[in-house]
Amino acid sequence: MSSACFVTQVATEEILLRVTNVCGECYDDISEGDIIHYDMQNYRYLCEKCQEELSERMNEACEVVEEEGGGLFC
Predict the structure, then answer these.
(1) How far is CA 40 from CA 8, 12, 50, 70, 71, in A?
(2) At 55, which helix (H) or strand (E)?
(3) Lesser CB count within 10 Å: N end or C end of the chain?
(4) Burial grade of 51 (CB within 10 A; 0-12, 13-18, 19 or more)
(5) What is the DSSP letter of 62?
């Protein structure tokens, strides 16, 4: 799923050499030709799996919405 929260592109040699060659969330390797997603809120590249998981937790304003009941005093 692509949205205004992410910019989807193909990993190029330039990105891999100058910016990153790992996912900003899970740190798995990114290879040339992989589909990657730039997280506009946290300024990082994500693999498809991490982008999909993050998208499921975001609202339309690109904010991560945490489930209730996960706090320290619940």
Answers:
(1) 11, 19, 14, 26, 26
(2) helix 48-56
(3) C
(4) buried
(5) S
